[in-house]
Specification:
The protein has one domain: TIM Barrel (Alpha-Beta Barrel), CATH 3.20.20. 29% of the residues lie in helices and 24% in strands. It is built from five helices and six strands; from the N terminus they run ββββαβαβααα. A six-stranded mixed beta sheet has the order 2-1-6-5-4-3. The chain is globular and about 40 Å long.
């Protein structure tokens, strides 16, 4: 059993061994343009209650980052839809969390595209 899994819209995947550039949640947003040429960027979440990584992901996508974006650290299944909406492609979770929150819980939140609150409010 792997120490980590990658969660994507179709469930758990074994960790692929790719080495991303890792951004801390307190990275200066003005420097995000320096990272646009990378293929894989991971944004660290020190705790599930620390949402700065969501903002960084959105800003990277707005600046044109087209590579793979991975959330690492303290995210839980309930936050998967938000992670996908702001631009993350996948979430890396430890095996211990996968045991407590099995694939079914993550898949339940994989319908993130169906919940477009902005268009619902505008309509």
């Amino acid at each position: 059993m792997s120490d980590f899994f990658l969660v994507r819209d179709d469930g758990f995947h074994p960790h692929d061994g790719a080495e991303p550039v890792i951004l801390a949640p307190d990275v200066d947003p003005a420097t995000l343009g320096d990272y646009l040429g990378h293929d894989l960027i991971a944004i660290s979440f020190p705790a599930f209650s620390d949402g700065r990584g969501f903002t960084l992901a959105r800003l990277l996508r707005e600046k044109g980052f087209a590579g793979r974006l991975r959330a690492v650290g303290g995210l839980i299944a309930d936050q998967y839809a938000m992670a996908r909406r702001v631009g993350f492609d996948e979430v890396q979770i430890p095996a211990a969390l996968a045991a407590r929150q099995p694939q079914e819980q993550w898949l339940y939140r994989a319908d993130w595209q169906q919940w477009d609150h902005r268009s619902r409010l505008a309509g």
